[in-house]
Amino acid sequence: MTAAWDRHQAELRVLVASNRKVATVWHRGGGPALVQAITRALRIASARIPALVNGIPVALCIDRLARAFSRYGSPGLGADLALLRARLPAVEGLAGPELLAAFERIVDQGFAGAEVPA
């Protein structure tokens, strides 16, 4: 998972900063609030991913963001996002450790570009 993040983080930031359509989806779709909720869940043991972000169901927020990034991003980003969405369970209500465990399972299944444990 770290390899995929390392590979795409700069592209994600450029898309939000320079592509008006992506930036609109990012801001209206709750991107900053979603990142804040995930960060909070990872840092505070009792925190959980909420069901809604800015009044939008988290699953819908994630789907809209993934579609925008896939549409305007590189083919590699689109492929990694498609695989991630197909394998990521519903994140609503998950605590940070549960979210990390879900990502670890994705890596164990052979996430594109990630190192698979031997």
Secondary-structure map with pairings?
Blueprint: H1 2-18, H2 20-28, H3 31-43, E1 52-53, E2 56-57, H4 58-72, H5 75-87, H6 96-108
Helix pairs in contact: 1-2, 2-4, 3-6, 4-5
**Alpha-carbon Rg, integer:** 14 Å
Low-pLDDT runs: 113-118
Give the overall silhouette: globular
Q: Oligomeric status of the shown chains?
A: single chain
Mean pLDDT: 88
What's the total helix number?
6
Q: How much of the polypeptide forms β-strand, as a percent range?
A: under 5%
* Major sheet details: 2 strands, antiparallel
Query: What is the strand tally?
Result: 2
Order of helices and strands: HHHEEHHH
> Biggest sheet, strands in spatial order?
1-2
Bin the helical content.
55-70%
Structural class per helix/strand content? Answer: mainly alpha
The overall number of domains is: 1
First-to-last CA distance = 15 Å
Task: Give your account of this protein's structure.
- With 118 residues, the protein is mainly alpha-helical.
- It has one domain (2-108).
- The chain has 6 helices and 2 strands.
- It has helices spanning 2-18, 20-28, 31-43, 58-72, 75-87, 96-108, and strands at 52-53, 56-57.
- Strands 1-2 form a two-stranded antiparallel ribbon.
Structure summarized in a few sentences:
By secondary structure, the protein is mainly alpha-helical. Helix content is 68%, strand content 3%.
Record keyword descriptors for this entry.
118 residues, mainly alpha, two-stranded antiparallel ribbon, 2 strands, disordered C terminus
